[in-house]
Each structure stands twice: as structure tokens, then as C-alpha cells.
Specification:
The chain is α+β, with helices and mostly antiparallel strands. It has eleven helices and 31 strands. The chain folds into four domains: 35 residues; 243 residues; 215 residues, no CATH class; 47 residues, no CATH class. The strands form eight sheets. Strands 4, 5, 6, 9, 10, 11, 14, 15, 16, 17 and 18 form an eleven-stranded antiparallel β-sheet that branches. It starts with a helix and ends with a strand. 31% of the residues are buried.
Length: 618
């Protein structure tokens, strides 16, 4: 029973006392109840039983993000992630002003119908980063760059002017000299050249050495990606898995980009190319477009001229299904010299922009007078979006041999010294109150027999000393617990509506799973609140004539995965090794390629525990 239940019980007792206080015959009943009943808060700690588990493969299509890069870890080995995706077109699109059919046929009644001679000028692949502009004090400076995120009067650049005043007056609160003219903002009377609309972003989900160049390769795919599953007679959507590697199978095609690339984490600003001679203002100094920070690389223009623009009017551009059979997709790879860069990218907003010129007939605004008619060059942009079939190939190699031993122990339901949790690969099973029905019954019996009122239940999982000894390595900030039998969330998850505005992956913080730190600021353990789950177990257990019956075991066995985003708990398909079966695996456990090393039951140390805080009536 939780705290609110205790308060309700006390209210009932108080109401009984008031009622019997008006009746002398029953007055002594209230006195006895007060004198003999005292609520005492106590706690009891139980060990948790952890068993290592592993996925052979997991579904990676339909993810809200895509991983790209390589990352090496002394325990979890080298992880390499590539992106494979279909592209989609707008079948109704006409390059230029007229269809290719009209261009070829001509139109004696319309002099504007000419051969438009469309020519690709440049092509860019764009994949945005995840970013935020959190500004807790609304002073115009994002929190990560603010000297005091909770004080709008703070002076982040130290020029003597508060952040909020600089934002209001049009100077840069992150520069002592906004317009770079050599005069401090506090003394400068003209900062008009400063771009007051410039945006500053905090970039999320880049791990490793993102300041060093890496090799980025974009390649055509020569394998058709079916949206429907042939194993299900094309009646259901086809799953794609992390071990699907069409490059390794020999389906790589033309290379569209293969060069060293340096990430730019700043806003991308584009100015107008030409100045309008009919205006006094120089348009080339004006911003035409602003883009959030992203990967942006040029692709082979000849390839797109030949395979897209020159196909205008053909069936492959007029039908989406035929286009995806013709242009099957792209494979994107990123490798660094030190295997130390992993990017989690906003792949659902990725696209390819193809810019092209074409000839346009200009009648000079006088349709009757042909003497001033000319042919001019115009330009447009054609966009190809990433399509619904999009998945990650994730390869892992050179894992520490101790992981294999833990997995073997887990298959035999034997304890291990360490438990390893890694996104999309390694997870664990936890048993509450023992590994047998007899152990579970013995642990629960006092709660039913003594009518204990449960106030809180805290589950803790302790890290090995590997992480405190390797403080430079990334430690996942959150784990996720679920019902092992079904993959569904715990009652505590469903009951928790807390939100943490401005905190990445911070919602449902009462349910928890968040990384905790010790007094020396070293990662110590993960902690969950599973009060509702324990209350559910107690409620399902029936106690009659000194015998305890456990009728439902779903809440006793829990699954443990990486909690990359607490909101993404929908279930994906996961395959266990050696034909051990197919399970429902929470999506959040796939969205982060990193891992954590926990203590296991065979470590001889405090590995995991369940603390129940309860009240007794004596």
C-alpha cells in the first residue's frame, strides 16, 4: 500500500473515533484502538537475481533516429553503424515549366514552350543533428552557453552588459564585440552589422571525438528494399535487422561521395546569389535561408543528371513503386581513424536537394512585341526525401571474452560476476524475491500475514569499478525495466506522468532508472521506483488459513535494457541466439549503441537489491 493509502486509512480511523465519541456505550473501543495501534516505518532489503541475456539480431527499421559511425570500447568492442534507405520522389513533379512531352512536341500556339535544357548544378545530402535551444531564464542565451542559466541578468561574455539587455538591444550576449569592429559592445554606438537573427544550438547525441575529420561515404544501393514481408505472403510490413548488410553481400553501386569530412555544429546561413539591380539594397548581403546544424555533403552531379533529370517524362519518375525499383536507395558509412565517433542523427528529416538550371522564355512583359523576347536561365530545387524503408546495420566485434561467459551462464540461469547491458545486443533478466516459488512465497508471506502497508520499493543496480577507473568513457544515463514475459511496461511506468522540461530523456523521473553518483561524483548505481509493481504482486497473492498462493508470476520477472529514450517503449522484434526464440524487445533498448558493466550476483559484492519501506501496525 502506498503513502496515500495510509493517509486514507488514518482518516477512516479518525472518523470512527469521532463517531464513537458521541456514544458512551462504545467509547472504550476508540480508546483501545488509539492506545494499542502505533504506526512504525521499517524497511527490508532483498537480493535481486540477475541473469545475462543476448540478442542475435534486432529489428532496426522504423527507428526515430539513425546511428552512424564507429566507436571502440575496451569491454564492448568495436561498434560500426551504417544507414541504408530508400528514397522517394514526387511523381507529379515537372522539371522547369513544362513537361518533357510538351518540350519534345513543341507548341505552335505558345512560344514559351521551348527546350528547357535542364542541367544539374549541384546536389547535397543533408542529415540534421538533434539539437535544442533550451533557455531556462529566457535571456536569449541557451543554457549550455549561459554563465548562469537561471539568472537573466548574468553576463555570459563579460562585457559589462547583461545577457537579457544585449538580446533586447540587438547585440551578441556571447561576444564582447558583436560586430567584430574592435570596439567593445559597452562602448560601441553602432552594432548594426551584427546578425541579430543568428541562432545558437546545443547539439545532442554526438559521442566521441566529433572535432576530428572522418571519412564519409555515400553509395548507391543495388538491392530492392521490399516494404512487404515475402515470408508472410506480402501481407505484413517487412522487418529489417541490424545484421542486414547489403554492402557485404555485394550490392554496393556507384559512389556518390567518398571524402574526409569535418562536422560543422553551427547554424548554416545562405545568402542570395544575385543582386537585384532594380533595388538600392544589395541582396547578396541578405540571408535567403537558415538551416539547423547538420551533415551536408555534395553528391555526384553527373550521376543525378543521368539518373534523375535526364529521365524526365519516363515511367520511372512518374510512379513511386517503379522509381524505388529503379533507384533502389543509398548506403551511408562513416569511419574515423581512431574509431571514436558515433552520431545519433535525425534521419527522418534527412533529404537530398538537387539544384538545377533550365532555360525559360522571357517575353519582357509584352506578349505582342517579340523584339524584346529573350531566353534566360532560371533555377529550381528538387527534393528527394528518405523513404519508409530505412534501417541501421550495426556490426559489433572484439567484445571482451568475459561477455561470452556471462551469456553462457545466463542461458543456464547461473549467476555471473558481471552483467553487461548494451543497446540492441546485451540485456538482462531480473528475478524478484528469489528464483523459486518457495523463495518468493517466503519473502511475501510476512506482508500478507502482518498486513504490512508498503510505502515505497526501491530497486538498485550497482556498477562495477570499471567505470570509476575509466572516467573518460561514456556511461549511459538511464536504464529501462519492463515485464520480461510480455515486454510491456511496469505499472510504475504507466502511473508516472512526471515531465522534466528541458532535460533530455528526463521524463518519468519517479519511475526512474537514472544513473546515480557517489560523494566523489563517480557513477555508482541505477535506481528505480517499483512500488506499484510490488503492490501488484502483493495484491495478486492470496493468503488463507496460513497458506499463501501466488497466482500470477508476470510481475516477478523483469527485463533490463538500455533506456535511450524513456518515451520509446513500443515493441520490436528481437531474435535470441541458437534458435532460442523470438521476443518482443522495447525500442528504447535499441536506440543507443553504448553499454554499461554492472555487478552480478557472483561478484561477491553488493550487486543489486530491492528495498521495501513499509509500515506495520503494532
Amino acid at each position: 500500500m502506498n503513502k496515500s493509502s495510509i493517509f486514507k486509512f488514518l482518516a477512516v480511523v479518525f472518523e470512527v473515533l469521532l463517531t464513537v465519541g458521541c456514544d458512551k456505550e462504545f467509547h472504550s473501543v476508540g480508546i483501545d484502538l488509539l492506545e494499542n495501534s502505533i504506526f512504525e516505518m521499517e524497511s527490508e532489503t532483498y537480493p535481486l537475481y540477475l541473469f545475462q541475456n543476448q540478442l542475435e539480431r534486432v529489428q532496426t527499421n522504423g527507428l526515430p533516429l539513425a546511428m552512424l559511425g564507429t566507436y571502440s570500447h575496451p569491454v564492448f568492442g568495436k561498434t560500426e553503424a551504417t544507414i541504408t534507405s530508400q528514397l522517394q520522389i514526387n511523381p507529379a513533379y515537372v522539371f522547369g515549366n513544362f513537361s518533357q512531352e510538351r518540350e519534345d512536341a513543341g507548341d505552335p500556339d505558345n512560344v514559351k514552350v521551348i527546350d528547357e535544357n535542364e542541367t544539374v548544378t549541384d546536389v547535397f545530402l543533408e542529415i540534421p543533428f538533434f539539437n535544442n535551444q533550451r533557455d531556462s531564464d529566457s535571456d536569449g542565451v541557451i543554457d549550455i552557453r549561459d554563465s548562469d542559466p537561471n539568472d537573466p541578468a548574468s553576463d555570459s561574455d563579460g562585457d559589462g552588459i547583461s545577457d537579457i539587455l544585449e538580446s533586447q538591444t540587438g547585440t551578441n550576449p556571447l561576444s564582447v564585440d558583436s560586430d567584430n569592429d574592435g570596439v567593445n559592445d559597452a562602448e560601441d554606438t553602432d552594432n548594426s552589422s551584427y546578425d541579430i537573427e543568428a541562432n545558437v544550438y546545443e547539439i545532442d547525441s554526438l559521442y566521441g571525438d566529433y572535432q576530428e575529420p572522418f571519412t564519409l561515404k555515400v553509395q548507391q544501393l543495388n538491392y530492392f528494399l521490399s516494404q512487404l514481408d515475402p515470408e508472410e505472403d506480402f501481407t505484413t510490413a517487412r522487418p529489417y535487422f541490424n545484421d542486414t548488410d547489403y554492402l557485404q553481400e555485394g550490392f554496393g553501386g556507384d559512389i556518390l561521395f567518398d571524402q574526409s569530412y569535418q562536422l560543422n555544429l553551427e547554424e548554416l546561413v545562405f545568402f542570395y546569389d544575385e543582386d537585384d539591380p532594380d533595388t538600392e539594397e544589395n541582396e547578396t548581403t541578405l540571408v535567403e535561408e537558415r538551416l539547423t546544424p547538420r551533415i551536408r555533403v555534395p553528391l555526384d552531379t553527373d550521376f543525378f543528371q543521368k539518373n534523375i533529370l535526364d529521365k524526365e517524362g519516363e515511367e520511372v519518375l512518374n510512379n513511386l513503386a517503379k522509381f524505388q525499383s529503379y533507384f533502389k536507395g543509398l548506403i551511408i558509412q562513416a569511419t574515423s581513424n581512431n574509431d571514436n565517433l558515433m552520431m545519433l542523427l535525425d534521419i527522418n528529416n534527412a533529404l537530398i536537394k538537387m539544384n538545377f538550371d533550365f532555360q525559360r522564355y522571357d517575353d519582357g512583359g509584352t506578349s505582342e512585341d517579340l523584339d524584346d523576347d529573350t531566353t534566360v536561365t532560371d533555377n529550381r530545387t528538387y527534393t528527394l526525401n528518405f523513404a519508409s524503408v530505412l534501417f541501421n546495420t550495426i556490426r559489433t566485434e572484439n567484445q571482451d571474452s568475459s561477455i561470452n561467459q556471462s551469456v553462457l551462464n545466463g542461458f543456464q540461469e547461473q549467476p555471473s560476476e558481471k552483467i553487461y547491458i548494451k543497446g540492441g545486443n546485451l540485456f538482462a533478466k531480473l528475478n524478484l524475491f528469489g528464483n523459486s516459488e518457495a523463495e518468493q512465497r517466503e519473502a511475501i508471506l510476512p506482508y500478507k500475514n502482518e498486513r504490512r502497508l508498503i510505502n515505497a520499493a526501491k530497486l538498485r543496480l550497482y556498477l562495477s569499478d570499471f567505470h570509476s577507473n575509466n572516467g573518460n568513457l561514456y556511461v549511459p544515463e538511464r536504464l529501462y525495466l519492463y515485464l520480461n514475459s510480455s515486454g510491456e511496461p511496469l505499472p510504475d511506468y504507466n502511473a508516472d506522468n512526471t515531465t522534466a522540461n528541458g532535460v533530455t530523456n528526463g521524463d518519468k523521473y519517479v519511475f526512474g532508472g537514472l544513473l546515480q553518483y557517489d560523494a566523489a561524483d563517480r557513477p555508482s548505481h541505477y535506481e528505480f521506483n517499483i512500488t506499484e509493481n510490488i503492490t501488484t504482486i502483493m495484491g495478486k497473492a492470496s493468503f488463507e488459513d496460513g497458506a499463501l498462493t501466488l497466482s500470477d508470476y508476470d510481475n516477478f520477472s523483469l527485463g533490463l535494457v538500455l533506456g535511450a529514450n524513456i518515451q520509446y517503449i513500443n515493441l520490436f522484434e528481437g531474435h535470441l541466439p541458437e534458435g532460442r526464440g523470438v521476443i518482443k524487445y522495447p525500442l528504447t533498448g535499441t536506440l543507443n549503441p553504448f553499454g554499461v558493466e554492472l555487478l552480478g550476483n557472483a561478484s561477491g559484492l553488493k550487486a543489486a537489491e530491492l528495498e521495501i519501506i513499509y509500515n506495520t501496525t503494532r
